[in-house]
What we know:
The chain is globular. The chain is α/β, with parallel strands linked by helices and about 325 residues long. It has eleven helices and ten strands. The termini are far apart.
Amino acid sequence: MPGMNMYNQQNMPVNGEIQNYVQRELTAQATAKAAECQSLLARKRTEGSTCFSLHTALELYAIERPRQCTLPVNDFYITIRDGTQRSTVKRVSYRTWNQPFLTYVFPNGLVCMHPLDTWIQYAQYLNLDEMVILGEAIIRRFRYSVDHFRNRLKNFTHVVGRVRCEQALPLIQVSDSVQETRARLTLLRFGLSVPQMHYGITDTNGIVRYVVDMAYPDNHVAIEYDGDHHRRFRNQYVRDQRKRRDLRAMGWTVIEVFADDLWNEPNQRDFAQHVANALNVPLTGRPQHQFRALTDSRIAINARKGEYQRRQQTARIHKSQ
Length: 321
């Protein structure tokens, strides 16, 4: 792909050692996808670089794919700058994106859209929640800051989904898992204040005894996500149970949240109500003003068509006033 801007390996952030089974599984999937991509390139007759993107890029980067996405299902996704380059290979989706995207070249020679640009490209296919979740997943993998996303977005103009990107940025934090992010967004959507993430709870001597996923320290309410590891790793299960027993003995209310609690809106409402009861506050069912984008219809998943035209029309109205 002539004229494609690239990051080299030295510019690419590297994550720490993989420590849990979720990351190990993602890495195994990335290895398998890399082999599939190499096989595809061997069958492909198109000359020039092939930039893997979207779902394929996430798989190669060992990042979780979005749960809700309007992108058509295919085995491979390749982004091109114009519509002249195509292939007859089945199950390959070519996406034309005339934007100044950058790329990363893996040691095995595969070319992939840069993670930050991948996030921006996804804005036309994801709702706000999924954009926040994906942003935090990219941060976990590459240790970016929110400012990295914000500064990269400045290089894009007339990009579909820009409003969604801008609304997602203030909601992005550092999190340990996709489900942790979903739990936090659920609390905000139903009107609760933002919990403190990865809060350290101290004993009477001021020594940090435990770190919890989320907490409302003033109310001594801690929230812990119970993941699949409880069924796989007994030692982790025992440690978590002892931790929660000790926290309750220290006067903390510990609320456990499970995947089922986040699966649909009724379950999410029940979870939020449980937390509201522990905080002794009413559940309004509406986000607080600073989080109102979570229910803003302008950034709903079906509202992306004509987004740029609407923004331009609004700008013209303001300019004429």
